[in-house]
């Protein structure tokens, strides 16, 4: 395909055009106003929000007036509406750039310090749940830089915004996730009441995830545990509770003790054959024999793997993609964040962190029980 001409060259190739008439100031102002989204009244003045309070109060353990008053204190967040949407359509993904955001010296040094400080808790979590210490430490590092970045949005504001004011109209390829956030708002309100937490003081991400491990309210209620033994679950001020909760989350979502996360693979050159392997995305559905039947070449460990695999494609901007064969454990990491790029960042950070710790002479689990790929 021919490259587009620079603007100046394109203009020079055409006869001069008459200058367009300037739009009148009033017309321009009217056009700008039409493009702006309609300003919603405060949540406390909205019938849909108050109807939610009336319908949900009893099941959530609140008095109707109490829940009405609480939701009236929530504030719509335009920034949340902007951040929840996907990037521009057609924007090239780049695993190399994504990797550099997380696997960098400052975060790794913080990971070493975190592992040294919480070595006993990480070892206990690995023994109890079968998840390697470096994977647990990696998720906390990737999610919050070891507690340094836990989010500055009030969770009530973020969840109310995404429940009642999910962006509309949606760009191509995006879907309305307000039903998901409606349930998470319900879970948040129950969580606050059950644990005696002030719903107006809890802060988190733009999606409403909170604490060292960035748990959504529903995940907090289902998978968080009291790992420090003080009688209550605290994912915001107790990194030990976060360690146990991350490990429990992964175990409950299918983590298999001792299984590698992925294997090396050479994909077939044929586009149709590759498409056959990519059809299941991150969900492992094909065994090693099926991989090789269409021309993929697995490492010896991959060929010996007893269980389903998924072909994972990581795009590299304008360069050729990178491929690995993901196992159940790779898929489990994507249950924490539904992105193969996220999962690979967690896995590679964990592997690098373990290597750095090993270089200091500190004990690290044997490779057989760790997250590393099979060669």
Automatic annotation (TrEMBL):
- Biased-composition ranges for Low complexity? 1-20
* Active site residues of this protein: 143
Here the segments flagged for biased composition (Basic residues) are: 21-35
Can you give the residue ranges of the Transglycosylase SLT domain?
46-350
Output the CDD domains linked to this UniProt entry.
Slt35-like
GO-annotated molecular function? peptidoglycan lytic transglycosylase activity
A single Pfam family it belongs to is SLT_2
User: What InterPro entries does UniProt report for this protein, alphabetically?
Assistant: Lysozyme-like_dom_sf, Lytic_transglycosylase_MltB, MltB-like, SLT_2
Q: Per its UniProt record, what PANTHER family does this chain match?
A: MEMBRANE-BOUND LYTIC MUREIN TRANSGLYCOSYLASE B
- Full protein name: Lytic murein transglycosylase B
């Amino acid at each position: 395909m021919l490259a587009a001409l620079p603007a100046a060259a394109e203009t020079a190739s055409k006869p001069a055009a008459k200058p367009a008439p300037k739009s009148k100031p009033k017309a321009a102002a009217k056009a700008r106003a039409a493009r702006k989204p309609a300003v919603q009244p405060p949540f406390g003045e909205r019938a849909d929000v108050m109807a939610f309070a009336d319908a949900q109060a009893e099941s959530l353990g609140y008095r109707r007036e109490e829940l009405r008053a609480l939701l009236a204190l929530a504030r719509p967040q335009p920034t949340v509406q902007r951040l929840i949407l996907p990037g521009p359509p057609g924007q090239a993904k780049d695993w190399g750039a994504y990797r550099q955001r997380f696997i960098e010296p400052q975060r790794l040094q913080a990971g070493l310090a975190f592992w040294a400080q919480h070595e006993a808790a990480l070892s206990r979590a690995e023994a109890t749940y079968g998840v390697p210490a470096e994977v647990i430490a990696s998720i906390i590092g990737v999610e919050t830089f070891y507690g340094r970045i836990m989010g500055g949005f009030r969770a009530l504001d973020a969840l109310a915004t995404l429940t009642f004011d999910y962006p509309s109209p949606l760009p191509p390829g995006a879907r309305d996730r307000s039903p998901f956030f409606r349930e998470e708002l319900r879970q948040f309100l129950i969580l606050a009441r059950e644990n005696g937490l002030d719903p107006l003081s809890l802060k988190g991400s733009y999606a409403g995830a909170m604490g060292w491990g960035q748990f959504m309210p529903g995940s907090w209620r289902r998978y968080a545990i009291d790992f420090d033994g003080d009688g209550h679950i605290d994912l915001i001020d107790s990194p030990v509770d976060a360690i146990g909760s991350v490990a429990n989350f992964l175990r409950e979502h299918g983590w298999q003790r001792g299984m590698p996360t992925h294997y090396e693979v050479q994909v077939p050159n044929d586009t149709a054959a590759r498409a056959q392997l990519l059809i299941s995305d991150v969900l492992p559905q094909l065994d090693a024999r099926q991989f090789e039947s269409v021309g993929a070449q697995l490492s010896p460990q991959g060929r010996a793997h007893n269980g389903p695999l998924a072909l994972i494609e990581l795009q590299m901007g304008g360069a050729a993609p990178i491929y690995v064969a993901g196992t159940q454990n790779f898929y489990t990491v994507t249950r924490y964040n539904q992105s193969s790029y996220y999962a690979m960042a967690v896995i590679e950070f964990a592997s690098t962190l373990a290597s750095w710790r090993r270089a200091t002479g500190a004990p690290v689990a044997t490779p057989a029980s760790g997250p590393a790929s099979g060669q």
